[in-house]
């Protein structure tokens, strides 16, 4: 009903329907302040786009044994109790969205699912053809660094869907300046760059392409990839930066100190520096100086 009403308004207003492709955005939540903050960010980031947001909570009883399910799934009322709690909290979040962030472009669907988070996210990506996942990160206790929570790390590492990780307590700001570090080892495809271009066009953003050199000239493949990237980014404002004598992590941090950046974007390619830079360090609980939203684009998108 909501979609048909939007369609009627669109036709009546004479808007070109080809530009109004509905986005599907998954919002995993554990009902924490951190997850609410990421929901607010998503709703504001896509406020001018027609979207369906899937508010997802997965649950398993605190004490759960498979033999109970095999004999009688509701033997101790554990599943029903957890589901009821999950549904009630989802309804409260939904009501909060309607009261504070109501938007005729947006439709919210609530999903309470008895499953583990990662398998359920994978299922939803395939079933609903999700465009983005937006979720929060967790702050490292007693430090300014943001240490990604284990769920966020697993999602970044395992799902083939773009993920926007929002730092805890980050207050929404328009992404006017986008930082895109790259080693030019990736053959950029439209499905990768369309995500960057979409954000840049919607928010009149400037894309800062950051390359860290180590004293070696670019290979022929890197030169070709760089030329391709330059060609694709002509549609938006962009600046290419080259820095040397720094590791990638320091280069990103130093760039943010000298320049106002609203979003960090990377393509997760196992043959690039991404995996070494983030996953190995995060798995070993090393904090990374990140105080802005982080869009991670998988090299292979479903």
UniProtKB/TrEMBL annotation:
Tell me what this protein is called: Nucleotide-binding universal stress protein, UspA family
- List each copy of the UspA domain by range: 22-167
Q: Which CDD domains match?
A: USP-like
Which organism does this record belong to?
A: Algibacter luteus
Q: Which family would the database say this protein is a member of?
A: Belongs to the universal stress protein A family.
Which InterPro entries has this protein been placed in? Answer: Rossmann-like_a/b/a_fold, Universal_stress_UspA, UspA
